[in-house]
Amino acid sequence: MLSYRHAFHAGNHADVLKHLIQIELLNYLGQKDKPYWYIDTHAGAGAYSLVEGYATKNAEFESGIARLWQRDDLPEAVANYVEVVKRMNADGELKFYPGSPWCAAGVMPQSDKLRLFELHPSDAKLLQENFADAGRRVQIQQANGFEGIKAILPPPPRRALVLIDPPYEDKRDYQHVVTALKESLKRFATGVYAVWYPCLQRAEMKEMIPALKKLPAKSWLRAELHVQGPSADGFGMHGSGMFILNAPWTLPQTLKETLPYLARHLAQDDKASFILESGGDL
Ligand code: SAM
Domains in the chain and their CATH numbers? Predict the structure, then answer.
């Protein structure tokens, strides 16, 4: 079942949270003068048009990146993220949105490598096209990312961010995430792992969080942005979260300064809120 196309959602509130945290994690890894890899198990197409095609259908970016784009009071982490989006839109108009691979390529040193998995044939092809000039720095596999990471962990530099961002259309994805992390931690215990998930009134989602907290990592951090209160009928996504294993010690403070701002400016009703909690040695 591969019906999900990320282009419909490009630049929405969930992408804002995910890409902002992704960029913070990569910038932190980049502070040390030592190589690292970026591994994306569910990479999508890499970059999206906001002025034609799928993204224009529901224009989800209008209540996401578009609300931040022109502001001049951005907290530092939001400004770092908006800067990456601005680089893709050099003429000052918001026409394109960078997916996670593009965000990564934009902030990583040229010498550091990207390993990208994308299963959908159309998105894998677009991803190849979007990185056609990247040479050996970027390796793309049209393959199941949950399986594919087994072969590349631990990465040769022994430092990496692994982003796990499945569509969750198949409810088995919740279990696949936990299993993939268990296996990955055995191979590469010191890696930084970031999982994106939707906030839904769904049992599988509610069971995933305690399972993630029990994983044998040094630390965990959970950041959720709820742009509205849960819907009365229990359907629909009222927000999204990022669960990070082995996050840098600076991230909780950064998110303390960032999440209230995002909840205020990306709110879709008066119940917008956030959750920030951590455990282990964070
Ligand atoms: N990470 C991207 C970003 O932030 O720009 C968005 C990814 S989107 C949420 C999920 C992607 O995973 C879709 O493009 C989908 O085709 C792909 N996909 C679904 N199952 C997969 C699997 N088992 N392995 C790799 N990719 C998969």
Answer: 6-280 (3.40.50.150)
Pairing of strands 96-98, 47-49: antiparallel
Distances (CA, A) of 78 to 108, 169, 227: 17, 29, 16
Residue (of 39, 278, 46, 77) closest to 159 by Cα position: 39
| pTM for this predicted structure | 0.97
Note whether ipTM > 0.95 here: yes
Nearest CA to ligand 1 atom 9: 167
How does pLDDT run across 43-61, given as a tens digit for each residue? 999 999 999 888 788 899 9
Report d(CA 184, CA 164) in Å as an integer. 11
d(CA 205, CA 210) in angstroms, rounded, equals: 10
* Nearest atom (ligand 1) to Cα of 196: 9
Nearest-angstrom CA–CA distance, 145 and 112: 20
